[in-house]
Design goal:
Number of helices: 4
Order of helices and strands: EHEHEHEEH
CATH topology: Glutaredoxin
Distance between the termini: 19 Å
Strand content: 25-35%
Strand order of the largest sheet: 1-3-2-4-5
Radius of gyration: 12 Å
CATH architecture: 3-Layer(aba) Sandwich
Largest sheet: 5 strands, mixed
CATH superfamily: Glutaredoxin
Shape: globular
CATH class: Alpha Beta
Helix content: 25-40%
Number of domains: 1
Length: 102
């Protein structure tokens, strides 16, 4: 999963393709638990782009997305938020949510 910058984020939210954004922080313990789950899903699910965005490096983007805690996962399709959750969830539940985007 790629760690994106503000310019890449601006391009992604214009995309019609499904995108999963993991808003994370390097110091966040639960983020370290969630990251490998999302990495696995990025290999298993075709047609969805998985990316990470560091909230400490991009607080304005995190704020614009209503991120109050990390990890927060925002799922977009056609530039519109379709699903979001905060914290770590089981892989199967996340996979169901991601699959619903396709």
């Amino acid at each position: 999963m790629k760690d994106i910058n503000a310019q890449e984020y601006a391009e992604l939210i214009k995309s019609d393709s499904p995108v999963v954004i993991d808003f994370h922080a390097t110091w966040c313990g639960p983020c370290k638990v969630l990251s490998p789950i999302l990495e696995e899903l990025s290999d298993e699910v075709d047609g969805v782009e998985f990316v990470k965005l560091d909230v400490d490096q991009h607080p304005e983007i995190a704020g614009a997305n209503g991120v109050m805690g990390v990890p927060t996962v925002v799922m977009l399709k056609g530039g519109e938020v379709k699903e979001r959750f905060v914290g770590v969830q089981p892989k199967e539940i996340i996979k169901d949510k991601v699959s619903a985007l396709i």
